[in-house]
Amino acid sequence: MPKSVKVTLEPGHVKVEGPKGQLERTLPSDIAVKQVDGELIFERPSDDFRHRALHGLVRSLVANMVAGVDKGFTKQLELVGVGYRVAKQGEELVLNLGYSHPIRFKPPQGITIDVQDPTKFSVNGISIEDVGQVAANLRGLRPPEPYKGKGVKYAGEKIRRKPGKAGKGAKATA
Questions:
Q1: Residue 170 pLDDT more than 80?
Q2: What is the distance in angstroms between the CA of the first residue and the CA of the last residue of the chain?
Q3: Which of 67, 98, 122, 146 has a CA-to-CA distance to 29 between 20 and 30 Å?
Q4: pTM of the model
């Protein structure tokens, strides 16, 4: 664990504090969590399938909490399409996505949205779940379509493209 992160453990509950903020989570009572020499130890009662699954889940959840309060998480999104743009007005995000009206999006508590240029923006926060959900909600406003690739997409996302209509001369004459 990083030196700047403080973890408070109670039975079935964990609280993580760091430079970026604090997160709390209720954990399954089957998995025991101990703090030893700046490390968190997760122990399961048996090698049963359910306990092994919970062991990995709890370890990942707490690791993401520690990483979030220490460094934070970011998802980069891009707009593709003529006239598609994004701007920030106060706390609200204003998206022009080819509809007859602009879409106003107010991020939830703990999430910030930074606009780099009119077609690129990022979603930032300390909870990986909230960052991913907000990014998915924004992408869902206009998902990329397979013919021209227009829409809101994650940075680096590959859009599977389909060929358009074959045209008049492609019909087989029988």
A1: no
A2: 72
A3: 67
A4: 0.85
